Amino acid sequence: MVSNFEILLRGEGLSRIGRIKTKHGDIITPTLLPVINPKVSLITPKDIKKLGFDAIITNSYIIYRDQALKEIALNKGIHNLLGFHGPIMTDSGTFQSYVYGNIHVTNLEIVKFQHDIGVDIGTILDVFTLPDDPYDVVKRKIEDTISRAKESLKFKEGIMLSYPIQGGIYTDLREYAAREGKHLNFDLYPIGGVVPLMESQRYVELVRIIIHSKIGLGPSKPVHLFGCGHPLLFPIAVLLGIDLFDSASYAKYARDNRILTPTGTLKLENIEEFTYPSPYIDDYTPKELLKMDPKERERLLSLHNLYVVSYEIRRVREAVRRGELWELVEMRARAHPKLLSALRVLKEYVHYLEKFEPISLERAFFYTSPESLNRPSVYRLRRRLLERFRGKYNKITIIDVKSKPYMDHVRKVPKGCDVFVRSIFGPVPLLWDIVYPIAQSEEPEIWDPELERFVKSAEEEVCARFQCAPLDDLVSIDVVYSEIDRLKAIADYQFGPPAGEILFRGNISIERSKTTGRVRMIYKNSLPILFLRPNDGLYTLKYPGGYLLHRLLPEPKMYVIVTRDSAEYNAKGKNVFAKFVVDADKNIRPGDEVLVVSEDGDLVAVGSSRLSATELIELESGLAVKVKDFKENYKDLEKILDLGED
């Protein structure tokens, strides 16, 4: 089955840079589709392209009901009707039914019409669910939508189709609607019925709806947040896996003499000076715009509003690429108290979000607010401490160290104790001091009360798990820990115990950086097994190291199982693509080092997973594993086999 969607880059949370392939070109996501009124629009296709939008959305029902527009669309196609030759998506009239009541078209009629006028992405006529609809009413509407979806499948040939996920405010029904729609294999899944929530700033409910829709749908399809066009919501929505937005608000605000900013809207009458740069209004004062011809003012304000939307979409995409999205979300949440409440709700879902959070980021962890402590990377670190740390001794002590990496600044420690360091993440093992995000973090010099409480609670948790000892009988750090102890501990953190013992027993040699003297390549029996990365303090696996883990590490083993045909190429160094993945270890996170294994159980390569476990299994296209080392690099297989006999 050919998929029209692929993930190009995984970001924090559920965020991703993706690509939707259509007949009229690719749509790079996340992005917004400007709503174009087919009857009248002050914005031209040239304007749309200049502002950086590659696709638009319009309403097929409006065209269907206007005889003149309908004839042009049927005879010349929707792209010629609108004068836009990029991807065009159409809505079906569902929102009009919410605003105006009944509409005069059936589901099959409007889906067939969208097919006949050549849209790139059409939408079924779903049944709108209201926030105050009772549970049984919402359930009935969902069943009606599912029935309509099934009858629409006959028109999928030639166009892509959208299945809107309805469900009101009931999270279990959102999951149900998403799961049922997933089985029908539509191309795009808008989350519908949320405009009333956004209009009344019910952001907590909005966030829950998005998350539960994603849980039901899974990660394999693009998701569209219907009617969302305000930049304030872009960061948190993208963090939760939204790929597409749309809105006519840019034009509605312009008609009402309102301008968009990244954090709100402002009426011209209430502004003395513009504080947000814009090529469309920089040459005017608010008073000059108010005196302008109404149509010209409306056009300039529409262009400005779209410019702000375009700028903020680009900003969010770049935050995804740079590993700065959590910071942007936390910053934007300060713009509105109800959005801050929505951010705080994410703590309830941290276990789910952690499954998709990259194992490390190129950018350091910046503590920007108490909400930073709710990020999945913090949750993962605390959980791995309790599950994966294997101390050298039977008790621990907790010390304060001001500079990083901590090991470089510790001279004496208590004898016979594993050493932990007090940090913003709570006590962390000194042996993990270079691991992301421990070394790669920045925090304020003055801790806020919430951070103090978090650290105290984490310390109590650690002391309940390990026996804490006082700071006495000090000896040199070299007496307590060797360099190999640190390298073993990092392996346990990354791969799970007893990886450290497996990898570091026997004839080990180390190659160091010529500039810093720090460990880089690690060899066993003169064969490379690991490369210690300087940016995140984690390992890149070499094939012999992968062989050791494949042979000796208990389940789970970070497997990515591929088809026999794929395995043949992966053994020669070719990357793994999602459509060839048969199965994967459920513990794999984006960025994890993985073992690429054939269906016959043969280790053919090692590499870095670009996806989470669920994505590896469910996605049908795109890069899955970047192969770093492979079987054919090592011709002397007998020598490799000897590694497993130590």
Low-confidence stretches: none
Number of domains: 3
What value does the average pLDDT take? 95
Strand content: 15-25%
CATH topology of the largest domain: TIM Barrel
| CA(first)-CA(last) distance | 46 Å
Give the overall shape: globular
Largest sheet: 6 strands, parallel
Annotation, overall tally of beta strands:
30
CATH class of the largest domain: Alpha Beta
3D architecture notes:
39% of the residues lie in helices and 20% in strands. The protein is α/β, with parallel strands linked by helices and 646 residues long. It has 3 domains: 5-249, Alpha-Beta Barrel (TIM Barrel); 363-481, Rossmann fold (3-Layer(aba) Sandwich); 496-643, Archaeosine Trna-guanine Transglycosylase, Chain: A, domain 4. A 6-stranded parallel β-sheet has the order 6-5-4-11-10-9. A 6-stranded mixed β-sheet has the order 26-30-29-28-25-27. A 4-stranded antiparallel β-sheet has the order 21-22-23-24. The model has no long low-confidence stretch (mean pLDDT 95). Helix 1 (45-50) links the parallel strand 4 (31-36) and strand 5.
Please tag this protein with its features.
26 helices; 6-stranded parallel β-sheet; 3 domains; alpha/beta; 646 residues; Archaeosine Trna-guanine Transglycosylase, Chain: A, domain 4; 6-stranded mixed β-sheet; 20% strand
